[in-house]
Amino acid sequence: MGPDAVLVPQPSAEDFPDFVSIPGRIARHARDFPERRAVVCGDTSRTWREFDRRVGRVARALAAMGLGRGDKIAILAANSGEYLETFMGALRAGACVVPLSTMAAADALEKMLDDCDARVLFLSDRYRGLVEPWEDRLSKLIPGGRIAYDFERPGWRAFEGWLALADDAPFERPLDRLDDFNIIYSSGTTGLPKGILHSHAMRDLLAVRFAAFDYGPDTVSLASTPLYSNTTLVSVLATLGGGGTTILMPRFDVVRFLEIAERERVTHAMLVPVQYQRILAHPDFARYDLGAFKAKLSTSAPLRAHIKADCLARWPGRLIEIYGLTEGGASCTLEANLHPDKLHTVGKPGLGSEIVVLDEAGRVLPQGEVGELAGRAQIMMKGYHGQDGKTRELFWHDAEGRLFFRSGDMGRIDEDGFVVLLDRKKDMIISGGFNVYAADLEVLLLEHPDVIDAAVIGIPSDEWGETPLGLCVLRPGAATTAEELRDWANGRLGKTQRLAAVEIRDSLPRSTIGKIMKRELREPYWAGRTARI
Fold it and tell me: What is the model's pTM?
């Protein structure tokens, strides 16, 4: 899908007179401060000179294979320096990168690779088992297009050997602001997930605007979520764009995170809510010196108000919550330090975004009323790759004809202009004709001293259609029963909100970026019934 084919209007050259691609910024940093650290992962550290050189070699190696503007390369691997070199090198070659989720099922991964027309696949040994069931059907990969980071197998080329065939001569290929940057597949669990297509302009603009969060050449950013996630990429690209140091964790571990943060004098981290919860709950948290932090960011799911308050009290530096879609459009930021009375919100529209609240008929609701959030911004995705119909389903136009993206999230805008986020529209529980927002019930359950994690889902009810069920994880040693917890909650809830039951769970299923997988929780209760799962 080229610039002339996109459904979503894109900015003109006049809107970005100072556009510089992320690969172009990397080359600039290599010239300006060649010996500063660019990327660190485990025992491997690359200066900007070294990183830029290896990025150039990846670009040259891909170009030698015939790849150029708009061609797709896919990566299925854990975080590593080589992963980031591949990503940036492919961009420099003009290619579009498809970072694949390591949590996806094997059949879903096959569909993604076929859908995006990837010509080269980079793979690590840890995820070979996801590829082997359909490896023989990868007909769109070019000869030599199977590259192994850390294993040897017939038909696969070793990454370092492949890279050694390219020389260190500088590689330059003009990149247009609307060229394809990446395709990120949504986390759909049935059918083909939607491939969200971003442009170079969108990515570079994010890097520029994150300077407001103190990203710059002195940044030391610790990335502990997977590189296939937009959550991770936003922070990593801001660090690369600003000339800071990116420290990659192949896998998140609380103690390891705290050790690295103290030793490396980490200034920035983009974390998801469950990570904040686990880090702050660690008994040795106070022993670590985190005084170098300038800003901690949170995204991917709502960060509970009590966790924000705890973070403000005990963790130095700014706390910034970002609400937004991978598709772009609706976006909010909450400077928690500046607005301690608004911790129950996700802040005000930010990063050039405008937000409205819509009713079921698509009419704009007045301030304070609950509806679906829709937003627009200077930069939004180019569309869902190859799915024009799905792209159009997002569209809403205001009276002036301006395009907004429907978010699928329910919420309201309070009297001060702060957005209160409720549930995903598809997760809203309709009980006896009343809308019940699981988020409200979850906040209440988490106020109980014995509850450390909670989710509320709608389950079938012959009387009400569906009814709320609370699923709770208790603190170690807690003696509260499910019935006591239900009665405690229902004594504080309105009649239409009351829980039919509470179940105690050892844990709640979460994705690698911390989102509770409510579809998985609902499925056993709705099996065999006609309902959205």
Answer: 0.88
Taken in order of first residue, the domains within the chain and their CATH numbers are: 22-251 (3.40.50.12780), 428-526 (3.30.300.30)
Q: Cα–Cα distance between 308 and 313 in angstroms, integer?
A: 9
Q: Give the distance between the most distant pair of CA atoms in the chain.
A: 72
Give residues with Cβ within 8 angstroms of 400, minimum separation 6.
Answer: none
DSSP code per residue over 197-264: EEEHHHHHHHHHHGGGGT-STT-EEEE-S-TTSHHHHHHHHHHHHHT-EEEE-SS--HHHHHHHHHHT
> What are the residues facing 148 on neighbouring strands?
123, 158
Pairwise CA distance, residues 144 & 219, whole Å: 38
Report DSSP state, residue 391.
H
Residue in the structure block whose two tokens are 């088992």:
129
Residues with Cβ within 8 Å of 316's Cβ and at least 6 positions away in sequence, in order, are: 290, 291, 292, 293
The dihedral of CA 172, 174, 180, 181: what is its sign?
positive
The average pLDDT across 398-412 equals: 94
| DSSP codes, 82-107 | HHHHHHHHHHHTT-EEEEPPTTS-HH
Task: Give long-range contacts, CB 8 A cutoff, 24+ apart: 124-128.
Answer: 124/76, 124/77, 124/78, 124/80, 124/148, 124/149, 124/150, 124/151, 125/149, 125/150, 125/151, 126/77, 126/78, 126/102, 127/76, 127/77, 127/78, 127/102, 128/153
- 8-50 pLDDT, tens digit per residue, is 888 777 777 788 999 999 999 999 999 999 999 999 999 999 9
